[in-house]
Amino acid sequence: SRPIDVTLTTAGTPQNLYAIANLIPTTNLVTNPSAETADPPTGWVAVGAATVLSRSAAQARNGTNSLLVNPDVAAAGNGTYFSIGQYPGNVSLTCSAYIRGFAAAGDARVEIRRGDTGVTLATGNTITLQAANWNDRSTTTIPKDLTRTASELRLYVVTITAHTNDFYVDAAQAESRGSVTDYVDGSLGLDHFWLGAAHASESQRWRPINMISGYRLHTT
């Protein structure tokens, strides 16, 4: 059985209790994926000599905050990274993040790099910074490779060209898969849960309900 706890948006007005969705089960290895914990957000490290990170409630795709990146020196490769930790070579890794600009200028993308050597293993699609929406998600994958030694891997979100335009990062995800799936963290309701403390641990999504064979309805 799966408990569904719904508060009516408008009293006396019918609404869906549960909408069946074809979402793929996965684990998000980023433990503070929407920058909800601490300021500057726990786990995120500034990249660039003068880059400043902060938690911002001005924009949020998920939760109530996002990571605001202020690259004060115009240079390619400035931004932030989150360490995924020691990762085996024989397992694929897909990293992604939503990126939103503070103004309509500049660019950024997701990258996967080794922590010990700094070598870039994969680069994501370019996001042109704009203040209009969170529709743009940069994603990239490194396939499993039996010859690649285990090493610390990092999810980077960095500038591509030299600019000092601020940008927001939210809904970051690292998953042991060969392709990206819908964003997951433990705050997204039914079928989603944290493996430890909320916004400070890995999170998972179970396989969603695809058939309802019965229900008990309790109202308050």
Please describe the topology of this protein:
Blueprint: E1 26-28, E2 44-47, E3 52-56, E4 66-70, E5 79-87, E6 93-101, E7 107-114, E8 120-123, E9 127-128, E10 137-142, E11 151-158, E12 167-175, E13 192-194, E14 203-205
Antiparallel strand pairs: 1-14, 2-5, 3-4, 4-12, 5-11, 6-10, 6-12, 7-8, 7-9, 7-11, 13-14
Secondary-structure element string: EEEEEEEEEEEEEE
Strand composition percent: 35-45%
Alpha plus pi helix count: 0
Give the class from helix and strand content and strand pairing: mainly beta
Q: Could you describe the largest sheet, including whether it forms a barrel? A: 6 strands, antiparallel
Rg over alpha carbons: 19 Å
* Average predicted confidence as pLDDT: 92
Helix content: under 10%
Distance between the termini: 20 Å
Q: Overall 3D geometry?
A: globular
Poorly predicted runs are: none
Q: Count all strands and give the number.
A: 14
